[in-house]
TrEMBL record:
This is NAD-dependent succinate-semialdehyde dehydrogenase. One of its GO terms (biological process) is gamma-aminobutyric acid catabolic process. The active site is at residue 262. Keywords: Oxidoreductase. One of its GO terms (molecular function) is succinate-semialdehyde dehydrogenase (NAD+) activity. Belongs to the aldehyde dehydrogenase family. The keyword Oxidoreductase applies.
């Protein structure tokens, strides 16, 4: 079944939860089938965990936290560095596993391994920089200090589109500052997360420090609710939809948990008439078709100034001719399958809605099935022009390889259009006007801005959104802030005879 995606180390394909340093079935014995989206066939079965497993994971993490928080920063750094080494050493197997369960082309999966591992390395180094302060004395004989401490047990809930990078980006800073972790990956892509747990075990992390369990969509809600209700869980970090993020925010109020929420996006991509159109096309291709358009920061609305609209669309269509839709086993594939049938149905609904409202189909617009892309989840890269602002795809994430092109006349108009959304995760614009390059970021309502650049992700940079795209930041020197709490120490009676 695996063909060229067969693993060199088969033991990385795990079929059990990892709790308290041991591998075990779910408490109820239920299982979940993991489906390869390219073939629509089962790859493996994993535990379908419920609230009992969620509580067991918290118990393990709570017990481990008592000693893990006391480990030296140097020791935490060393274990993270060893985990990083194992991620790279087993990178090919991790990439194959990711391609099997998520569908992305193998070259892209390899890139994600390196990207995810970069966060582990970054936060390994940050482990020794969780510094405090000594404040200026306000009274004679008094010393005032500030220290930063780990918040406690952290619940990590991750999506399916980046099965390795998302969980590494969340677990690494938690471990670096002294927190312990309970994690639930998406029901669509649990195998990569379980493989990471296996490598964390191999790296030598103490039992209970990292706990990973799998669950179906329905049972996943039970797992999340169990963590929300448990006062021992002091923080939840979540990447996913805005409705789920709002649920987490509401239900966490009872125990006043810390939250990091990276939620939905509706990224604008703006091309001004003074832009280098070839660079703009290249940037759009890089940002839009990564993971087949199934990313939260990929452009969802493309605004092109009217005077260069036709030329831009012609160049874009020519660039898209190089895209190859196919499974990860195809050596030339650049776009894999969508994650499941629900995703394809949503894409088609968005395209049909735009066409019904007067949009023009330039290319694509339908599923593809041929000798290469033989499964039901492949969709043709699509361009639509004359898309109206009332189209559903202008208000919901399409999460697929569809580019709606919208004409605009001037800068004030496009700023209004770009900000006309409750979301604010990413935004991109291309221009050769340096005054505009400095002016526009202050006008665009987004947490991440690409200026003449379509690929903006980096472990050195803070990642997160504004408005209903959530709050909190991941990566960079700011990435540890949400995992620590501030403690003030005031020591008196230091005066005396000299």
């Amino acid at each position: 079944m695996m063909n060229s995606l067969e693993l060199t180390r088969p033991e990385l394909l795990r079929h059990q939860n990892f709790i308290r340093g041991t591998w075990s079935e779910s408490a109820g014995g239920a299982t979940l089938e993991v489906i390869n989206p390219a073939s629509n066939r089962s790859i493996a079965s994993v535990p379908d965990s419920d609230a009992r497993d969620a509580r067991a994971a918290v118990e393990a993490a709570t017990a481990a936290f008592k000693t893990w928080r006391q480990e030296t920063a140097m020791q935490r750094r060393q274990l993270l560095k060893e985990w990083h080494r194992l991620l790279l050493e087993n990178g090919e197997d991790l990439a194959r596993l990711m391609s099997l369960e998520q569908g992305k082309p193998l070259a892209e999966a390899r890139g994600e391994v390196a990207y995810g591992a970069s966060y582990v390395e970054w936060f390994a180094e940050e482990a020794v920089r969780v510094n405090g302060d000594i404040l200026p004395s306000t009274q004679e004989g008094r010393r005032q200090m500030v220290i930063r401490e780990p918040v406690g047990v952290v619940a990590v809930i991750t999506p399916w589109n980046f099965p390795l990078a998302m969980i590494a980006r969340k677990i690494a800073p938690a471990l670096a500052v002294g927190c312990t972790v309970v994690a639930k990956p998406s029901e669509d892509t649990p195998l990569t997360a379980l493989a990471l747990a296996r490598l964390a075990e191999e790296a030598g992390f103490p039992p209970g420090t990292v706990n990973v369990l799998s669950a179906s969509r329905s049972n996943g809600a039970l797992v999340g609710d169990a963590w929300l209700a448990d006062g021992r869980v002091r923080k939840i970090t979540f990447t996913g939809s805005t409705p789920v993020g709002k649920h987490l925010a509401r239900e966490s109020a009872e125990t006043l948990k810390r939250l990091s929420l990276e939620l939905g996006g509706n990224a604008p991509f703006i091309v001004f008439e003074d832009a280098d159109l070839d660079l703009a096309v290249a940037g759009l291709m890089a940002s839009k078709f990564r993971n087949g358009g199934q990313t939260c920061v990929c452009p969802n609305r493309v605004f092109v100034q009217q005077t260069v609209l036709d030329e831009f669309v012609t160049k874009l269509q020519a660039a898209m001719e190089s895209l190859v839709v196919g499974p990860a086993t195809h050596p030339d594939a650049t776009i894999g399958p969508m994650i499941n049938s629900r995703a394809v149905e949503k894409i088609q609904r968005h395209v049909d809605d735009a066409l019904e409202r007067g949009a023009r189909l330039v290319c694509g617009g339908e599923r593809v099935q041929n000798a290469v892309a033989a499964g039901p989840h492949f969709y043709l890269p699509t361009i639509l022009t004359n898309v109206g602002a009332d189209a559903v795809m202008c208000h919901e994430e399409t999460f697929g390889p569809v580019i709606p092109v919208i004409a605009f006349e001037n800068e004030p108009e496009v700023v209004t259009l770009a900000n006309d959304t409750p979301y604010g995760l990413a935004a991109y614009f291309y221009t050769s006007d340096m005054r505009r390059a400095f002016r526009l970021p202050g006008l665009l309502e987004a947490g991440v801005i690409g200026i003449n650049e379509g690929a903006v992700a980096s472990e050195l940079a803070p990642f997160g959104g504004v408005k209903e795209s959530g709050y909190g930041r991941e990566g960079s020197v700011y990435g540890t802030d949400d995992y620590v709490q501030i403690k003030y120490l005031c020591q008196g009676q230091l005066g005396g005879e000299t």
